[in-house]
Design goal:
This protein is an alpha/beta fold. Helix content is about 45%, strand content about 15%. The strands form two sheets. A six-stranded mixed sheet has the order 1-2-10-7-8-9, with helices on both faces. The protein has a four-stranded parallel sheet with strand order 5-4-3-6, with helices on both faces. Helix 6 links the parallel strand 4 and strand 5 (about 120). The chain starts with 5 loop residues before the first helix and ends in a 14-residue tail after the last strand.
Length: about 325
């Protein structure tokens, strides 16, 4: 299925353990009543840099040889992966050249700068990201780390599901958001290994539904014209992530913008924690129930909590 084996995921977990948090799992009787199932929220909003992306970034950066890392690293990202790579590079004492879309949130731009990332801005298209990344690599010689279509990144992201499954026994399903698919691929691989009877479900905004379309067509269909408040999920699905999705994911479900905002409010009000819109997509899909999920114990990965507090979606 994938070159990311259980041994590689275990090695990734050992490698990054000194640099990340083992995040808690929270529950809420109120949310359970709304959804009609027991939900177990893996709170990656409490992770370093405020998102699960720290797992993949640290594994990728720490896996590089000294020769590969000598000129630093570069990546493109709208925010969370960018901040994670900047922090991981800083921890290793190498430069991080970050290509960010010009419309990235100010909070995420500030975070990348605070971690020492050297930012180059680009137009908000995949083509522009890749073009500017190529310019940076030509100028600096930095090693390119793809934000999600990368085995070391996938193995690092898989460790969130490893911890969730270790902490909560007998899950019937695990659901996580899908953008580029690094977290989904890692979650699927870890779940198939540790909890093979559990279903793996991807949740996606209806306004950025390339994974849903690709999954149902059984063919790679790139993202076009994405429009969603969940800015972390605007990117197109990665090729290797798509292949893993076809092999190891049971369902992809979509959800509306209104449901994403409502789910974000519910999490803030019931769990008393800060999450960003992308992190609320899984709960939104469960609340809308456009596709019934036959599961009583569901693990939900809350992906991050980096949000502009001056532009909360229910205030705009």
């Amino acid at each position: 299925m994938s070159e990311v084996s259980p041994a590689i995921i275990r090695a990734a977990h050992r490698r990054i353990a000194p640099f990340i948090h083992r995040t808690p799992v929270l529950t809420s009787a109120r949310i359970d009543a709304i959804v009609g199932a027991q939900l177990f929220f893996k709170c990656e909003n409490f992770q370093k840099v405020g998102a699960f992306k720290a797992r993949g970034a640290f594994n990728a950066v720490l896996s590089l040889s000294d020769a590969e890392a000598a000129a630093g690293v570069t990546t493109h990202s709208s925010g969370n992966h960018a901040a994670a790579v900047a922090l991981a590079a800083c921890s290793r004492g190498i430069a991080a050249h970050i290509v960010m879309p010009s419309n990235s949130s100010q909070a995420k731009k500030d975070a990348v700068a605070a971690y020492g990332g050297l930012i180059s801005f680009c137009e908000p298209t995949l083509e522009a990201r890749e073009a500017v990344s190529a310019e940076v690599i030509a100028r600096t010689g930095a090693y390119f780390l793809h934000p999600y279509d990368n085995d070391a990144v996938i193995a690092g992201q898989a460790t969130a599901a490893v911890e969730l499954i270790e902490d909560v026994k007998g899950l019937d399903a695990i659901i996580c958001p899908v953008g580029g698919g690094g977290l989904l691929a890692g979650t699927a691989l870890a779940t198939r290994w540790l909890e093979p009877d559990a279903r793996v479900i991807a949740a996606e905004p209806a306004g950025a539904d390339d994974a849903w379309r690709s999954f149902n067509a059984r063919a790679f269909l790139p993202q076009t014209g994405a429009r969603t408040i969940a800015d972390g999920l605007l990117t197109s699905l990665g090729q290797r992530n798509f292949a893993i999705m076809l092999e190891a994911v049971d369902a992809v479900i979509t959800t509306s913008e209104a449901a994403i905002i409502e789910a974000m409010r519910v999490i803030w009000q019931s769990l008393k924690i800060v999450v960003e819109p992308s992190a609320a997509v899984s709960l939104a899909a469960l609340m809308e129930q456009t596709s019934p999920i036959a599961a009583q114990r569901i693990g939900v990965i809350l992906t991050g909590g980096n949000v502009d507090l001056d532009r909360l979606p229910w205030m705009v």
